[in-house]
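Risk register update: the risk of archive-format incompatibility is retired. Evidence:
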Amino acid sequence: MAYLTSSGAADRAEIRRLGSLYDLLSAFARAKTMPDIYDAALASLAAATDSDRSALLLFNCGGESRVEASRKLSPDCINALNGYSPWPLGTRDARPIIVPDAPAEPGLSHCRKEFVRDNVHSVAFVPVELDKGVFGGLLLCYPGLDECSENELTVAQLIASHLALAISRTRAESALGESERRLQSILENSPAVVFLKDLQGRYTLVNRRFEELFHLSSTDIVGKTDMSLFEPAVAEYVTATDRQVLETQQPLTVQEEIRYRDGSSRTYLTVKFPIEDSRGAISGVGGIAADVTEHKKLESTSTHVAAIVESSDDAIISKDLNGIVTSWNKSAERIFGYSAEEMVGKPIATLAAPDLISEMPGILDRIRLGQRVDHYETRRRTKDGRIIDVSLTVSPVRDTSGRVTGASKIARDITERRRTERELAVLLKREKAARKTAELLNRVGPLLASELSLSKVVQSVTDVATELVGAEFGSFFHNVVNEKGESYMLYTLSGVPRERFEQFPMPRNTEVFAPTFRGEAIVRSDDITRDPRYGKNSPHFGMPEGHLPVRSYLAAPVTSRSGEVLGGLFFGHSAPGIFTEQDESLISGIAAQAAIAMDNALLFEKTQFAQKQLSRSNEELRRANQDLETFAYSASHDLQEPLRTVIVTTQFLHRRYADKLPSEAKPLLSTIVSAAQRTESLIRDVLAYAMASKQDREVPQLIDSNKALNLALRDLEVLITESSAKVSRDVLPSVRAHPNRLAQLFANIIGNALKYHGPEPPRVHVSAYQTDGFWQFSITDNGIGIEPTYAGQIFSLFKRLHSQEEYPGSGIGLALCVRIVEQYGGRIWLERSAPGEGSTFCFTLPAVPKSRAE
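Archived output:
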């Protein structure tokens, strides 16, 4: 029998493969584009296998396989591979394909010339697939014939599986992001008001149009009800129609007049509809509303529309050179509120705004000179005292001789336009601020997702958050408590040099800082120096002399997913009232992202340390196992010789002096011989067990398991004959194993079936079938059976369920079987058994791919 020993080179190769897989997962986590993912997969192949060239082929939308990425393959070889795939698109449960001699393979004849030119003599195709089947493949190229090993193929399959998941995830994220951006764009740019409410009538979503028309921000609206936003009568009507939608579970179209608390009102045509959650249950009310206020006004003033259309929407007024009104149309009445009877014969200065009375004489002076005033924007006062914005066009009126006798004025009310312009300016300012916020958040998100250095994560968060809220400086204090329970370490600083803090003590567990370090809530103060919690602690009772001036104060705890407070983000500004509720919300979100990123960074550091510890432990375990095997082997050999001496000597005494010994001594000699023989058998079994854990020098070959079974039955021939046993079998497969080891496996299990039999002659049947990449062997007998309670114990070393007198044995046989099966990557178990009903033992061995077996 030949034995294998562990190879340091094999260990290093395994470590290299594990390292490459770990690097691959890290690269996938950092990858931002598909090419990044492709390059990471090919780089991992190069690191984990001996393939010196590789390529990734993916099916395009037309169903054609194309080379998306390659490594060290010539352009001619890539062009030749385009359009080729060993599996059709969508193939399920595809198996890897190894081509030992690629140039000679008929199916690759179109690549023969390019393969020879690129020094490619053997290749392996590994499918890239998900639930819908194959959508691509990895190509591994080797300079020699049949160079792809089983281990390399296994690693390549793992890489292909991770690659498939990464491609699928990236495609899904891209599609989801695009869908969300489109929906958000539709909502934010819709001219209609859009809103959602929950079952309690609380707003959960409003769009930009809602904010514009109601002059409220989403933070002022979300979470509130109509009762807190509108007049009670209006709120009661709105909630009543909401209830009607929820009760009928049908859409409803209503006309609602919303009266604001300032007395103004607008009319909306609203379509309300029930909202369902993912389970189909009604979870709230949605609505889309159009502002029909102006339309209603036009309806209410329909009698005036005809006159306005016939003349003009603008006020048309005439006056003499003294500024006395001589004509006044309907539009003038509408804009300024005075009737024609009230204004004709009165001075135009009646309309002057209080601060612009001197403006009108200047306009008349220009008219007297025959000059025209075009689109002059100013303000005028209406009859009810309102000041409105108007655009004036004033032209001189001449008599038949051309002399200027008066003026004609067209006045257009531009109050709404000017208000819109002012609102637009405010919106543009808000948009600019929102864009800056989005840019900063977009910058910090990917950074936190990919960065695994704790110091870089914390510094980046501090820098971005400081800029985001407009603080003069920001800092992160790590939550480290000294023996007094009140000291915290400065971790990062942004906005000012670090030297500005070095001369001052660190924050202590005072009333101002404690809520943050305890993770209770965000603290925001317009003027921290006026906060009742400020200045209560000695020796400074506030900020030390020379400290950065702080009036506006904002602080947020950073709490990990486990609930541990990692520290706090602190921001300051020398002016009061700088930080807003929006800043508070932004910092809350950033603190949450920072906590996740810090958790990931800390976990990465712990993982790195654990990997080193695991590597060290594995090496120590390998050396311990090697020492243990050497000891078992040596001890077994050294113990056999004295035992044989004991047996021979005792047998000699029995033969020579049996007649001279007292009658009670003879059984003692028999007991000594029996015990020594059992001990010798036990030592042989221990030696066999120790050797089963050692690797044979020869690589296991593809063998016929029927022949291994024949070897086992030959060794059991005497026992089979003595027990009148019958052993049957199905046709058994070929597997990759050592013949003697597989025969030993069969012999131990079948030998137990022959030994532990009942009154009937033993009947044993051996069968095998393929499942999930393994051959499962089953050995069924009609023996005495085993209590299911002991199904796990029987495979342990020296575990016996019967006394030596009932059934002799060492209790090592099944433990030896476990060692043999696990050596080849399989497992062994008791499938079925019960007292008096026989047993079925099963074990698995990896199946050899069909292309390799042939």
